[in-house]
Specification:
The chain has 89 residues and is an alpha+beta fold. It has four helices and four strands. The strands form two sheets. Strands 1-2 form a two-stranded antiparallel sheet. A two-stranded antiparallel ribbon has the order 3-4. GO terms for molecular function: ATP binding.
Amino acid sequence: IQFQLQMMELIRNIGKTVLLAVHDLNLAAAYCDYLFALQDGHLVGSGTPTDLLTPEFIEKVYGVHARVGTEEDGTPYIVYRTARKEKNV
């Protein structure tokens, strides 16, 4: 985790546009200015982390219940609660 965060800080500080594919929503929320969410190869959402990462969106796209909080600096963070129950499991 330490090296992952160090790398994200380095990327943030180079002052260039960077396209990053990451599945860690908390990491994306902390370091990305704008997010694109894909599901089954299709764009299903885009926006700033604050606008996009809502409990409803996370449940719809990722199939989990989540609580979204806000750090003192305004950065959203996600606490995953439970997996959504599927009818045909």
